[in-house]
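A protein record pairs a chain with a discrete description of its three-dimensional fold. The shape at a given residue is found from the number at the same position. Here is what such a record looks like in full:
>
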Amino acid sequence: MSGLQDRIQDTKERMQDWADDRKGGGKGSKNIVVWLVALYLIITVVLGIFWSQEPDDFDIQANAAAKAEQMGVEVVRGFTTTATLMKVTDTLQNKPGGYLSNDITPPGLWLDNIPNWEFGVLVQVRDFSRALRKDFSRSQSQSTEDKDLAIAEPQLHFDANSTFLPATESEYQRGVDALQSYLERLSDPTEPTAQFYARADNLRQWLFDVETRLGSLSQRLSASVGQRRLNEDMNIPHSTETPDEEIVKTSWGQIDDVFYEARGTSWALLHLMRAIEVDFREVLEKKNALVGLRQIIRELEGTQEALWSPVILNGSGFGVFANHSLVMASYISRANAAILDLRELLAQG
């Protein structure tokens, strides 16, 4: 009988030891999970900081020369502008972190500054691809549109937030491929169907679109501190009654969004304006407008100065703290005024 009790007691002790081991293993497993989650968060935060860096400027003429050498062709009129549009679009997709606007996983899901920067770039890419299709590549209003540009423009207007089936990146790449095909035909002396017409009226039409974009951005940036504005449309016939004045203020959660959209817009425009200086140089010199274009470029360069603050400050106009939105609005407003002057010069005979 005592032997049986000893065996029962021994079995209880073994089961207790096994239970204690399981408890210890469970704690170890929980510790491993905690460390893995912590490591994942650290990695995503570091990646998020790295991906939040804005791309640097690039040399538009060096880019065109490199592409021409790769293709084994000469740089002709319109080559630099088209190659610049392609490079801007390529940067949108292949910068650190890639294209973030359609990300559904961290850290891209958590970031909003760079996606707003991407949107600003994308608006200019779309506007310029449309101008290239309907103006720069056609000699007159009754001309047939270019077959490759007819593909490129709608592809670059594809939904910016599509993650898959199809992914935004793949659709934009189809647009870049169509631009590449146009560029190859443009630089082929035996292919007369691809042309780039550097005329003052074509350039004025695109500049008008740029002017309206920058005007809207300037107003939205200035509204960071709130403004009481008179309704300038009240004396124009319109559909419904509107108040004589209104208070316009950007919500605090959108201040950095508007700022980075303006940074992206200015970054894309800076490169496109530099390309315009190359391909429209004869027209600009004839109209005495070259200095005006260079002034626009200088103002846009000011929008790309390094931002030393970790956050977008929103101090009052004459307050203690800076207001980054008002500084950006100042540069964009001056660039917009210079564009208006340039358009007037181009309209003169």
Observations:
- The two ends are 122 Å apart (CA to CA).
- The mean pLDDT is 87.
